[in-house]
Amino acid sequence: MSTAVPSPSARTVEIGDATLRPADVVAVARHGAPVVVSAAARSRMAASRAVIDALAEDTRPHYGISTGFGALATTFIPAERRVALQASLIRSHAAGTGAEVEREVVRALQLLRLQTLATGRTGVRPVVAETYAAMLNAGITPVVREYGSLGCSGDLAPLSHVALAATGEGEVRDADGVMTDAASALAAAGIRPLVLTEKEGLALINGTDGMLGMLLLALADLEMLLETADVAAAMSVESQLGTDAVFAADLMALRPQDGQARSAANLRALLADSEIVRSHRDPAACTRVQDAYSLRCSPQVHGAARDTVDHARRVADRELLSAVDNPVLTADGQVRSNGNFHGAPVAFVLDFLAIAVADLASISERRTDRALDPARSHGLPPFLAHEVGVDSGLMIAQYAAAGIVSELKRLAVPASVDSIPSSAMQEDHVSMGWAAGRKLRRGVDGLARVLGIEVLTAARALDLRAPLAPAPRTARVRALLRDAGIDGPGTDRFLSPDLERVAALVSSGAVARAGIPESTKE
């Protein structure tokens, strides 16, 4: 399961006149927004192609134009064999294996490669970009496999599977998700298969587009999940008779971390006008000096994750401004080798986000566990069970959360610290950014499920505090669950469907919107 943001409008995304925004990538990749290549981009590509054509006629070798690739870069290829060279490059590099990669990831990497083509820095003909746009608009999604990219020289194998489909070879899924061969899908959509010429094969596969696409999709999800984490924490603080005094703005100002301040503001708003919180504000009625860390430090942990997301977003924004290829056409018309395809900048932040995801889930699971323990829940029944001893309540829901958190800790081990040399030691240091993106996607899914279990638990605990009423916002979240068929306290029932329903509510953004309406965000 992958999380999703609310569907944007179906406006057309223009490629080539302005930098793609993160929201544009999500719109095309996840929601099928159409794309169009601008006239200015077509003009730039035509001009840069003229440079490539001139170099192709030169008797001196030029990398990627009249030579082999990688460790074979010193091998000169005669003109009559260069079309075969391009086809061989794509076929041989489309060497992915394993499970299929998700449709939205494939569309994101194809869109991002299209953007780089449209810069006019890669030397491809305009028809190449037009073909990629047509495939996206027709809903033709090349089959890309899980394993194959080392995150250096770009996401070679994933991008090669896309390029292979554009030439009419390999497997794709059509707009209905049906597996078919690329030639049939292109014919049905009226798209002529590409015949690649000098430089074009290399230009289609030498980029960080897969890892960047996964980063942008994860950032969209995490922005929503951070709001959800604040909602869940507020419900836990409220239902466990915690205090909101520690979230005061003047206390947050003593440590001016941006994310912490934003999370604390959310918690204050979520707990405003709560009868439950008000019931134990009097020191005479509550003798506890301070709450446990998992309650009291929620804005600090959530805020650190917010700041990590902000850092990752800055890296992603810079990457969206990039034209990643090797060799690349510079502004003065030269074709120059470079190392911009190395995925380290993206790989590092993908790993950093995996750490933040694991810790967000960890503190959430700790809040859930406190609600189920009568020694720490301040008057709630063990495991929130109806008939203690006969019923187990939410005991095993916490097991599920704990199991996911343990998995997320393993997924937080960075991929980017690893490197395995390849291509006969020519490519002797690689980023593993694709692997970092793959594990982050699994982490984001796990975080959504852990937060869902906390929300489900806290909603039941709020019911058990009756007749005291929760805050208006947390009451809306509880009502959302009840309307979705997730019942409150009562005898034990088949729990797995409830966990799936609440995970779907979290992943769709419904929980975040119920607790923190768009119109009230600071």
From TrEMBL:
Task: Return the InterPro entries for the record.
Answer: Aromatic_Lyase (IPR001106), Fumarase/histidase_N (IPR024083), HutH (IPR005921), L-Aspartase-like (IPR008948), Phe/His_NH3-lyase_AS (IPR022313)
First-listed, main subcellular location of the protein, grouped into a coarse class? cytoplasm
Which one Pfam family would you cite for this protein? Lyase_aromatic
* Record localization: Cytoplasm
GO terms of molecular function = histidine ammonia-lyase activity
Annotated EC = 4.3.1.3
Give the family, as the similarity comment puts it: Belongs to the PAL/histidase family.
Q: Which PANTHER family match?
A: HISTIDINE AMMONIA-LYASE
What protein does this entry describe? Histidine ammonia-lyase
Its source organism is Microbacterium aurantiacum
Identify the coding gene.
hutH
